[in-house]
Amino acid sequence: MNMRTSLPVGTALLFLAALSLLPASSILAGGRRRAVAVSPPSSDLAIAFVDAGQTADGMLDAGTMAARPRRGAMGAAMTVRTVAIRIGAPSREARGTATVRAFLETPDPHCAIRIDGIVLGAAPRVIRRNAPIGIATVYRIEIEVPLSAPEGALAGTIGWEVTTD
Amino acid sequence: MRKSLFLTLLFLAPMAARADDGALSLSPAVVMLRGGYGQSTTQTLTLTNGTSRDFAFDLVAQDVVSSGGKRTFAEAGSLAGSIAATAVFSQKHVEIPAGRTAAVTMTVTLPPGTAQRAVVALFRGTNRVMSGNVPMTASLGGLLTFALSDDVELQAAPLTVHPQSASANLSVVQACTNAGREPLVARGVLAVLDAQGSLVGKSPIAQHRLLPGEAADLGGEYAGELAPGHYRLFVTYDYEGRSLTRSAEVDVQ
Fold this sequence. Notes:
The structure holds 2 protein chains of 2 kinds. Chain A has one helix spanning about 10-20, and strands spanning about 35, 45-50, 70, 75-85, 95-105, 110-115, 120, 125-130, 135-145, 160-165. Chain A has a single domain, classed as Immunoglobulin-like, CATH 2.60.40. The N and C termini of chain A lie far apart (about 60 Å). Chain A is elongated. By secondary structure, chain A is mainly beta. By secondary structure, chain B is mainly β. Chain B has 2 domains: about 1-145, Immunoglobulin-like (Sandwich); about 155-250, Immunoglobulins (Immunoglobulin-like, Sandwich), CATH 2.60.40. Chain B has 1 helix and 19 strands. Classes of the chains: A mainly beta, B mainly beta. Strand 10 (about 160-165) of chain A pairs parallel with strand 11 (about 135-145) of chain B.
């Protein structure tokens, strides 16, 4: 008697999908002991700049600096703008928290940049602990430029880093 | 055949929906691992570029530690027993076209005797995007935590209660510290009992991960409206199979 049976295509696909979901960390590799995941990996982490003036891809230009430069301390002009960053998919309530850090990737010697009052440097600094996931958070960027500095685009690049808490 | 095509589309649908959400997405965001000194783990991290432009990233590992009760990040190798220093990525640099996904594996080994318990795999963006005339880059980090023993202890200060008012719900907050050697995730519930000891209502407290030595103010609100009277509040945290309860009393006018 022939005991062989063939699985329906749909069942086979589901079986393959289930196999692919097996945690890779539980598999022994190279005869070396591996640490084991004790919980299913959490959902993903996402970042999007969500300024009102965002382009279709949600990431880019928010328009020109809105604030009129005003005279700061010691003969410097200060410009203020805000940027909204959403971590994770949009939701009405926070779905966890993340740490937001920022740094100056290419420091501009002609200006000082602060985010929410924190002066940026070459090393990442924590701007916000426990930033809500799913809800856009607005950050205030202050750029202080000496009046003697040449006109032109800002040379310093602000790097944003988001890590799950 | 039609059935298999439907199933294939069903699996691909969430991926297609994510591909154009205007965000950069990293998955998984957190992996909690258990092991011992000398053991290694290989994790696959997937970054999806849901924007309309190409992005490039450098892969970097950093240790995540607690300093003065606050979580801080340290460059690989800058601390004794650095886990990040052992990180090996399958690629050190990835370029991800718009709407595409890239997977990178990271292998880390727990150095013997290390006190570190967490490392972050950072996709550090190298593309500049303009926000106004401010150039920016975007980076995402996935967190890996390691538990090597059962030395877990959550310490909680007395509850601070903010009574219900015309414009605010009743809320509680308390300083909590991970006094053990291993990371923990605390999940809490706030229970409100009336003067007779009957349960009036419950409210969940958002879960919070604490690395060894890390402290945070945990708490929550009771969303219901309480009638005038005397109440007893209980906050119970469940963490790594243990529990911790604190209580306080409040009068609602």
